[in-house]
Every structure is written in structure tokens, then in C-alpha cells.
Amino acid sequence: MSGDLSKFRIDADRLMGRIERLGEIGSLPGGGVCRLALTDEDKAGRDLVTGWMRDLGLDVSVDRIGNVWGIRAGLEGGPPVLLGSHIDTVATGGLYDGTLGVLAGLEVIATLNDAAVETRFPVAVAFFTNEEGSRFAPDMMGSAVHQGSLPLEEALAVVGIDGATVGSELQRIGYGGTIEPETLCPRAFLELHIEQGPVLEREGLEIGAVTGVQGISWTEYVLTGVSNHAGTTPMAYRHDAGLVAAEAIVAARRVTGEIGGTQVATVGSLKLEPNLVNVVPEKAVFTIDLRNAEEEALQQAEAAVETAIRKAAEAEGVTVASRKLARFEPVAFDERLVSIIEARAKSAGLSIRRMHSGAGHDAQMFAPNCPTAMIFVPSRDGLSHNIREYTAPELIAAGARILLETALMLASDEFDLAKDQEKRP
Ligand code: HGY
Ligand code: MN
Ligand code: MN
């Protein structure tokens, strides 16, 4: 296939219709959605999207960690150009995080079907299990298993925040497939995603050509002190796990200032036990999410936070136990694909900039193994993981158009990845 790619037209209404229809599954009373990984809501979303894959004539497969992909045959066989993301959400999620990348991928397929176009290489669309990691850590679990950076058995054995295991929940919802995850080895991987930050909107831009994803470090801390009477226990006698947790939160924020750059830190979950008004907390269980685009700086941040927690714990006579929930190094995307995205956006008259991703994505699991890149569209007010997450339909259509044109180039002889592959460092 060659020539004018712009003759293909994304059907924006069809795409928005699918986004809104999927958004009805797990919808929250005040807006937004909750489709935590492997819950009944996730199952219902999976059933809906898998049905759309089959309606579009895709050859659908489910692997052993529940990843689902549908392949549209090309004139030639071999690895497909893979478009994908996730359809699980955080508990206070929006309509677009992950969903956009999967449903825009289906829109690409529908557009090719409408045009009765046969690409040289196959094109596939996938959604990966448990990208969010909110119920079962780590995040990007399905794509990490798919790409070999997380052993399948280890993932299946993960116990979630509600005590269920990944393996048992996959079986319960009927998505414990039989295919080995590494069966699908893509020719290239493209993910369209909302930016989930303020940059594109603040600069009045329509498209982000994503150059890479920052490193992620998730740690769970369990602090154990001594529960005691809130009224009778003198301050000097206390071993207050809650105090040390509070000092940890302050230390994490302080460390971001000391490290600077792209360093961010979040204590997103915190539980005190027995969590009663008149009892000195015996136990504090909390998580620390640290991220940085530079691996060395991320390690410095991890060390500084760990030192601060242990120092505060020692002073209060509280013990510390911790376990790593997730750890991913920063990745860079394929310069050739980033350049195509830039060129397609410019030829479509869309405003674009290169940028890094602050959020983790399935694409970061593919980046070390095949040519990979992402396309961002703006998030209103920079909001995400928030029920007010929003991206205007015209921006969604613009992002889907760039996904379509980039995928078409990679699935045709316009761009022979194999030839260029030799040049890779
Ligand atoms: O945590 C993340 O960045 C992603 O939303 N899982
Ligand atoms: Mn996402
Ligand atoms: Mn997310």
C-alpha cells in the first residue's frame, strides 16, 4: 500500500460510541468508571470488547494471563503490527485511560474493513490484563508477562488487596486462556493514550509524540509499634506506627525536592490498625510510588526514602518490613516510529511536540523487544485517575487518525522495519 494515507477516514462517532458504551460498564453514580482488574466489571468489559473484535472479523486469542488479542490477516503472514492498551481501570477511573488505545485500535480495523484494504502485514489489536495494578501489583502485569519480564506463575500467584489471587480470578471470570503469552511477537507496537497530565493542554497542542516512559518504583511498608491507650500513655512511652507513617509521607515529599528533575513521590494507600480514635496505632501499612525519568536518580530517591523511614522508625521504637510491589526502569521508544508519528501529525496539520510519559503503560514492556511508540492526546485540566477525566472528541479523532496512518505505514512496504532493524544499535 502506498500513496495518500489521508484518504482513510476515522469514523469519530463510531469510536466515541464504543468509548461511551464501554464506559457504561462499571459506571459510577457520580460519573467515571470502576473496572478493577479481573472483577465482574472487567469481565463484562472484556466480553464486550472481545465481541467487537469478532464482529470486525478478527481472529481472537486469549493467553494464560488473560491478555486478549485479535489479528486481521495481511497479504503476507508473520508478526503483526500490534495496537493496544488496557480496559481495566482504577477505582475512580475515567472513560479514556487505556480504553482509548484499545478502541481506537478497533476503529483502525473498522476503517480498513470499510475501505476493503489489505495490508501487507497483519494488524492486531490487544488489551492486556491488569495494566493498572490497583488490585494486583505490579501494574502492567499482563504485558510484562507477555513480554517475558514477569514470570507467568509468579503473576498467577499474586494476592490482591482483597485476598483473591490473579490465577483464581482469571478462572472465575473465564479468561484464563490456554495460549502461551509469548506466542504473539509483534512487528511493532503502537499505543494511543491520553496524556494524563497538563502539558499538551497548557501548551495548546493536539498530539504528543511520546519518546519514552519514566521509571517506576512501588514499595509497600509495614510498620509495627505498640497499641496503647490514647489517654494514659505518656508520649515518651509510645511506639506509634502512625507517627512514623506520617514522617514517611513528609520525607517522600522532601526527597522529591532534593532530587528535583522529574522526581515524583506518592503515598496513595495508608491503613492504620486498629484505626480507632482512642488507640495509639500499632500498625501502619502504606505504599510509596516513586518515579523518575533517570534510573540513577530514581535509585537515589528510593535510598533516601528508605533511610528516612528507618531512622524515624528507630527513634520511635517501631519495626519496619517492606516489599517491592513494582520496579520498572525508564524506557526509550523507537526514534523511527516517533519520527513517523511527528511527520503524520504535521502532514495532518496537527500541532505536536515530543514528550516523556509520566504514567506507566503497556508500551514500556514492549519497548526493549520491538519497535514501539506512543501517541498522546491532551487531558482536560491534566486530570486522570479521576472521574472527571476528559478529552474532547475532536482530539480523540485526531489521535486515532495518527494511530491509523502510523499503523498503515508500519503494516505496508512504506516502511520496512526489518531493513531498518539492522541499523538499530
Ligand atoms: O501507574 C501507572 O502509571 C499506570 O496508570 N498503571
Ligand atoms: Mn493507562
Ligand atoms: Mn491508569
From TrEMBL:
The keyword Zinc-finger does not apply. Transmembrane segments: none annotated. NCBIfam families: hydantase, PRK09290.1-3, PRK09290.1-5. Zn(2+) 1 binds at H86, D97, H193. This is Zn-dependent hydrolase. InterPro entries: Amidase_Cbmase, Bact_exopeptidase_dim_dom, Peptidase_M20, Peptidase_M20_dimer. Zn(2+) 2 binds at D97, E132, H385. Binds 2 Zn(2+) ions per subunit. Keywords: Coiled coil, Hydrolase, Metal-binding, Zinc. It comes from the Bacteria. Residues 291-318 form a coiled coil. One of its GO terms (molecular function) is metal ion binding. Its cofactor is Zn(2+). Gene3D superfamilies: 3.30.70.360, Zn peptidases. Residues 212-314 form the Peptidase M20 dimerisation domain. Belongs to the peptidase M20 family. It comes from Roseibium aggregatum.
